[in-house]
Amino acid sequence: EFTTEQQALMRVITDAYNKHQIPQDVTKKLLQDQYSTEENFLLLTEMATSQVQVLVEFTKNIPGFLSLDREDQIALLKGSAVEAMFLRSAQALNKKMPIGHTEVLEERIHKSGISEEFIKPMFNFYKSIGELHMVLEEQALLTTITILTPDRPYVKDQPAVERLQENVLDLLRKMCVLHHPQEPQYFARLLGRLTELRTLSHYHAEMLASWKVNNHKFTPLLCEIWDVQ
Ligand SMILES: CC(C)c1onc(-c2c(Cl)cccc2Cl)c1COc1ccc(-c2ccc3c(C(=O)O)c[nH]c3c2)cc1
C-alpha cells in the first residue's frame, strides 16, 4: 500500500492545498450585482491575480520544489499557472464551492469578452472534470503533477523535476486505486485531463491576445506570469 514517505508526501500536499485558497472576501465579490462585460473581466482578473498568489504559496510547500534551481522554479510556475487555474476554477464550478459562486462564476466567464471558440472547449473541460468526481487528494495531486511538468519552456534541469513528478505520479496512481476500485482506467483518465489542459493553455494565449487587442488591462502579477504587456 502506501510507504511512510508516501503518507507524509500526501499529507503535506493535501494540507497545503487546503491551506492556500482564495480568501472569502475576494471570492464573495463574485456575488456583487454588476454583470457588464467590463465588470466581469475586472472581477475575473481579480480572481486570477489572487489565484496566482495562492498558487505560488501552494507550490512552495511541494516537497523538493524549493531545492530546485531558482530559475527552474520560476519556469515551472510560469509554465503551469494557466493549467493550475483551469483545475482550480473547475473545482469551483463543479464542487459547488460556497453557495452561489458556481452560477455567478460561470455567468461571468461567459460574459467577459472571451470569444465563443474558446468558451466551448473551456466548458467541455469543466464538464469532463466534473464527471470524474475527484476526491480532494486527487485534485491536490493532479495540480502538483501539472506544476512539476519537466518539459516546460526554459527548464534547465529536467531530470530533477522528473524525479519529483514521478513520486507524485506514483502516489496518485495508488490513490486512484484506493478511491475508485471499480475503475481500473481511472488513473489513465486523470492523466488524459493533463493533455486537455495543454490544449486549453494554447487557447488561453490567444484569449489573452484578443483581450489585449480590446486594450483590457491585466495586473502586474498576471503580466509577469503570462509575459504580457
Ligand atoms: C485575467 C482573467 C480575466 C482571466 O484570464 N484567464 C482566466 C482563466 C479563465 Cl477565464 C478560466 C480558466 C483559467 C483562467 Cl487563467 C481568467 C480568470 O481566471 C480565474 C477565474 C476564476 C478563478 C476562481 C474563482 C472562484 C474560486 C473559488 C470559490 O468560488 O470559492 C475557489 N477558487 C476559485 C478560483 C480563478 C481564476
Report, as a whole number of angstroms, the end-to-end distance. Answer: 49 Å
Silhouette: globular
List cofactors, ions and other ligands: the ligand CC(C)c1onc(-c2c(Cl)cccc2Cl)c1COc1ccc(-c2ccc3c(C(=O)O)c[nH]c3c2)cc1
Give me the Rg, rounded.
17 Å
Order of helices and strands: HHHHHHHHHH
**Spans with pLDDT under 50 lasting ≥5 residues?**
none
Largest sheet: none
The secondary-structure class comes to: mainly alpha
Write up what this structure looks like.
This protein is mainly α and 229 residues long. Helix content is 72%, strand content 0%. Helix 3 (37-60) crosses helix 4 (70-94) and helix 7 (136-147) runs antiparallel to helix 8 (158-179). The model has no long low-confidence stretch (mean pLDDT 94). Bound molecules: ligand 37G. The ligand CC(C)c1onc(-c2c(Cl)cccc2Cl)c1COc1ccc(-c2ccc3c(C(=O)O)c[nH]c3c2)cc1 is lined by residues 22, 27, 41, 44-45, 47-48, 51, 82, 85-86, 88-89, 92, 97-98, 101, 105, 109, 112, 218, 222.
In short:
The protein has 229 residues and is mainly alpha-helical.
Per-chain topology:
Layout: H1 4-19, H2 24-27, H3 37-60, H4 70-94, H5 101-110, H6 116-132, H7 136-147, H8 158-179, H9 186-213, H10 220-226
Helix pairs in contact: 1-7, 3-4, 4-6, 4-7, 4-9, 6-9, 7-8
The structure holds the ligand CC(C)c1onc(-c2c(Cl)cccc2Cl)c1COc1ccc(-c2ccc3c(C(=O)O)c[nH]c3c2)cc1.
The site of ligand 37G has 22 residues, from helix 3, helix 4 and helix 5.
